[in-house]
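Lab notebook: predicted structure, single chain.

Context: the supervisor wants predicted structures on file for every construct in the current expression panel, including those that have not yet been purified. This is the next one on the list. No modifications to the sequence; it matches the entry in the shared construct table.
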Amino acid sequence: MWTFFAKALHYSSSSATATVTTTASNFISSAFLGKLLFGETRALLWWVGISVTLCGLLLLHTASPHTEQQHSEKKDK
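Prediction complete. Output recorded below exactly as produced.
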């Protein structure tokens, strides 16, 4: 987990994106491995929570990374 988090920090434009990406992948891999290895099931609330997390992750990855930089350049002028 820490190796993937460090790689995500290296390739990401912000630490928030790396944190949410690593957390979401951790939840999803835990769910699949729990099902395969132990036959665990997930409650409806868990699926709602991971769906909200994935929607937030989608918003973070589709947002333009230059928005903050352009905003700060406008303030300087």
